[in-house]
Amino acid sequence: MKTSVTDLAVLGGSPAFTEPLAVGRPSRVDRRSFLERVERILASGRHSNGGPFVEELEARLAELAGVRHCVAMCNATTATQVLARARGIRGEVVMPSMTFIATAHAMRWIGLDPVFCDVDPVTGQIDPGQARASITPRTEAIVGVHLWGRPCPASALEDVAAEYGIDLYLDAAHAIGTALDGRPVGGFGNAEVFSLHATKIVGGFEGGALVTDDEETAERVRSLQAFGDGIWNKHGGTNAKMSEVSAAMALTSLEALPDTVSHNRRNHDLYVKCLDRTPGVSVERFDPDQRPNHQYVIIRVDPAETGMDRDTLHRVLLAENVITRPYFSPACHQTEPYSSLPTPRSLPHTERLAATVLALPTGTGTSSTDVETVCDIVRLAVSHGDRVVRGLQAGPAQEPHHDDFEHGSGSDLLSARQ
Q1: Are strands 297-301 and 357-360 parallel, antiparallel or unpaired?
Q2: What CATH class does 5-26+257-406 carry?
């Protein structure tokens, strides 16, 4: 345990962890169960094109979401694009700027114009009032985002969309297994899209899944994601199909979901306990009307109280081999290709969040001892914030280099949605 500020690795001490402890490390699954599924795939000779594991995954995700239809696809970005194509969306799409950049890129890539709105300063979630204020005659849809493994105010967004007669889609990349007021995430709006990227709480190496109760939307999506085959081939299509091996991995991961959520909940509660009275550091909590999946542990860092900003704390932890993530900084409107475009409304809450939030490691590869060690480092660093900053200005110690993590192979810095 580090007891002196000079014990911090960023000031010359030894790193607390010999191996990187990273946000977004894939959760553990039953290896034998997965390999048995792979053997069945190889024996069947059917590796893609809607095989039995894809069909089973679709049925189980639809049941989890409380809807009738699920279409598994190659990733969530493509699933979102196929959805917008299937619904015939044109013009503007309102969405929060506090999200992974792929939420905006997915719409821009198919010729739509993202219009960014502000978030609730307390929850960090899209503010329905701000979404309403961002609607123009060119608006054809709202894209809500369930952030950090908990639901956004989807019911209120449904009311806004109904008021203006526009579509509502939910980016549910973080939200498999969550619920709002007892209603499972997956059944809100016209459709929702889950991510099954390797770093998500249910992972299929790469993958995404669209869930909806609307039969016509599901039929269109299913056609368009397979080259436009069938009744919708007059509209063209793309190849967005999920492979059988991705479905096999996702099913194996889905089987572990209850245990993974329980493990993450214990980690979250321990972070809250250990950091509860740390000045300038607050752990995101959950409303009683929510059922989160605890995929992320998010803290906010107040530099006025800690003497250091979020980025400095990130550097401190990085030197200890703790790979944290500023989800999401910069916000979408603060980075290209969007920062050079006019933003119709100011986004002060988004900008404050983007400057202060930090995701800490959790998941089945993060133990209670790991959590306690991370919290010890955070408490020590922020209790000597001014001294740490002065030490870094004088010349920081050599920090560990983590190319793999920075480029998304070990975490989801660049792959937070998919």
Answers
A1: antiparallel
A2: alpha beta
Architecture of domain 31-255: 3-Layer(aba) Sandwich (3.40)
CA separation for the pair 258, 131 (Å, rounded): 33
pTM, two decimal places: 0.93
Residue 224 has pLDDT above 80, yes or no: yes
Q: CA-to-CA distance for 156 and 78, rounded, in angstroms?
A: 26
Cα separation of 363 and 382, whole Å? Answer: 25
Residue pair 200/418 in contact by the 8 Å Cβ criterion: no
Token pair 């937070």 is found at 416
What type of residue is 218? A
Tens digits of residue pLDDT in 123-136 = 999 999 999 999 99
For 248-272, what is each residue's pLDDT tens digit? 999 999 999 999 999 999 999 999 9
User: Helix 385-394 to helix 310-319 angle, to the nearest 10 degrees?
Assistant: 70
Tokens standing for residue 37: 């599924």
- CA dihedral (22, 26, 30, 31) in degrees, to 10, reads -100
Look at strands 69-73 and 208-212 and give their pairing: antiparallel
Q: How many CB atoms lie within 10 A of CB 174?
A: 28
SS3 224: helix
Helix (H, G, I), strand (E, B) or coil at 69: strand
